[in-house]
Amino acid sequence: MLQKYRDRWPWFDHVMAAAMRYQDKKGDYFGAGITYFSVFALFPLIMVAFAVGGYILINDADLLAEIKSRIDSAISEESLRKSVSDLIDQAIASRSTVGVVGLAGALWAGLGWMANVRAGLTEMWDSEVPKQNFVKTKLADLGSLAGLFVALVACIALMMAGSSPLTSSILDAAGLGDVPGLPYLISGATLLITLLAMWVLWTFVIARLPRVQFPWRNATRAGLLTAVAFMILTQVATLLIGGVMRGPAGATFGPILGIMLFIYFTARIVLFATAWAATDPRNQRYVIPAAPDPVVIAPVIRQESDPGRAAIAGAAGLVAGLGLGSLLRRRR
């Protein structure tokens, strides 16, 4: 039944081809791997964030005093309050060491993350990949990682700007807060700009991260599909995490579980979109077929039966048998 609809609708045939490629190349498996390396890479980033916070606090005594004052008011027990204060002082004192270790760990984990992302996206193409120079590959991975991180942070900031209270404060300060419909207009414009930015971002990911060279324009449809799905996923994740965080168990485990699920579904969306681009008829010319298995040539020895030889052998056996029988009778 599906074949009938695939023959009738080319777009449905493309969707089914992408889904089959995703399943054949174990898209869920690579999505889980990307999630693992993404969560693993968060820890050095947290260390870098702590180091940056330490440098900010050491240069802003008023902010440090305010933080300690709020901790003192929130914790009633004297020993615990002193322990937290000492912990803050130790974190500030070790900011340089934490920062260096965090940067080194972030670099190592980030390059490993990028290598695994590229491996997963390349697998969706089912294409032979030529061997590349190790140093050039790592430098290219580093540049792609930095650009991707900056672009992703910028896109998320744009998504949050439309509904942020800061936007309303800026409008009020400019005297435009009472203009009818202006906040909705700004939210719509922000959403559109964010969609365009996401479109460019995911088109770059699908077109340049796989180790298969093909034109940028041939990845625009897959990039738009990813951008729309990612924005929908972001809104759904925001609502779900907000609901889960209300309970004590959710406040403890909700953030890390939410981050893992968000990364996992994002990875699956990008992998499916890459499979979509890889099964696009326009991109088939850029797929390098895998080299065939080596042919093993083994000599085969065949022994054909010869009727003449068989008759001679039989006669010889008969004569030998008769001679042996005659010899035995004489001895008796």
UniProtKB/TrEMBL annotation:
NCBIfam families found in the cross-reference section: inner membrane protein YhjD
Subcellular location: Cell membrane
Protein name: Inner membrane protein YhjD
Pfam family, one: Virul_fac_BrkB
Superkingdom per UniProt: Bacteria
Gene (name only): yhjD
GO CC terms in record: plasma membrane
Keyword Membrane tagged: yes
Membrane-crossing residue ranges in chain numbering: 29-58, 100-121, 142-162, 182-210, 222-244, 256-278
Main subcellular location of this protein, as a coarse class: membrane
The keyword Protein biosynthesis is annotated on this UniProt entry: no
Organism name: Tsukamurella spumae
Entry-linked InterPro entries: IM_pro_YhjD, Virul_fac_BrkB
Keyword terms of this UniProt record: Cell membrane, Membrane, Transmembrane, Transmembrane helix
Membrane topology: Multi-pass membrane protein
